[in-house]
Amino acid sequence: MSLLIKNGEIVTSGDRFVADVYCEGETITRIGRGLEAPKDATVIDARGKYVFPGFIDPHVHIHLPFMGTYAKDTYTTASQAALVGGTTTLIEMVCPSRKDPVLKSYELWLGKAEGKSACDFTFHMGVSRYDDVVEAELNEIVKSGISSFKIFLAYKDFFGVTDQELSNVLRLAKRLGVIVTAHCENADLVFELQKRLLGEGKTGPKWHYWSRPPLVEAEGVHHLGTFAQMHGTHVYVVHTSCEESLHAALRARERGVNIWVETLIQYLTLDMRDAERPAFQGSKFVMSPPLRDVRNQEVFWNALRQGMVSTVATDHAPFDFKGQKDMGKADFTRIPNGIPSLEDRVTVLWTHGVDQGRLNLHQFVDCGSTQAAKLFGLFPRKGTIAVGSDADLVVWDAKYRGKITARKQHMNVDYNPFEGWAITGRPHAVTVRGEVAAKDGKFIGTIGRGKLIKRDPTHF
Length: 460
Ligand code: URP
Ligand code: ZN
Ligand code: ZN
Fold this sequence. Notes:
CATH superfamily of the largest domain: Metal-dependent hydrolases
Number of strands: 21
Helix content: 25-40%
Number of domains: 2
Largest sheet: 9 strands, mixed
Bound molecules: N-(aminocarbonyl)-beta-alanine, zinc ion
Strand content: 15-25%
CATH class of the largest domain: Alpha Beta
Number of helices: 12
Radius of gyration: 21 Å
């Protein structure tokens, strides 16, 4: 199997030049001008188009038992959605509850992916409890190729860890050279505010924001930073939504904490007014931390440009409007939290980032792919275009004009948060390890070809 992508403008986080890319089997083997390919090679004419490294979504939920229901996608649907949108590798959160056994949970999540995914994948291993058995099992999981953990400071008594557990996880992670990703919100404050609001008869989706204001998130980030400082562990704040939290992370960084920041495409483009839409439509925009005041968006675009925020992820967590979001019709605390966006992250980032002059091409690649690869031990196999890297490539059509609509999406959910939005570019062709898996909005890949990408601890 060989693939030749001809005359495209190759863009990585650091380089930009016109060349051909030749791939043999699963790997890029030559980059240069005027490359020849055997007669049976697949040839893609990329003249007038960009060629980007496959995009990486470092925060996705597919199998997610949560708030009395399950997220809607399977690997079959989610990986097709990812590929059509230009994402060739995703990192899913394994999310056992406090009651679930750790190793068995990892095997359960892995079983949902292997043989069913069309794109490559790996996991952040969720830790929601800590004891000797958990520690031994985490050691095994890291040895098997999973080099990042996930903890929740929110969702008390379900996913959430106590401070003692937080401390133990960070100590173990430091010893193993593992980075810890964290959902940062103060669980006790959320609980108290939820009780107060419901007691005042404030039950609709818009009150979700007021139960989790910026201060509650910023406290979580400061908390994580303090514990990480104690242990010298590398930490990564997932779904950072507001200026207050960003400042808490940057202050920790000033103190020497190895802390990185992820934001989401939703926070860059949607805002708290979406959760105020009438007729319960606002529930489609309920996630945690909540969508924020619109003024935060420019802060995050600027922070991305300056490298203060490393990655743009989705926290893809699809729950249907009918039958799932409406479980919270009488009580916003029962609305399943999550806003789907795996399929649209890259095109919306392009349209609102690059096309509107907020990001240059290198910044687009960096925050959509390269930084995730570097932070989570995938680089240079993923996240760049280089001889020896996996042939995960996105040939980008910047002349395409279209509209997002749930009617045409591959994500298995009954709405799209960006319904009707214009997009000003999309993938023309997407390859995973040398196979063309999507073309002009259509999935043409192979279900089950996606691989678990094993990662070594980084030790930074
Ligand atoms: O609202 C969200 N973020 N749902 C998914 C679970 C999580 O907190 O990441
Ligand atoms: Zn979260
Ligand atoms: Zn999440």
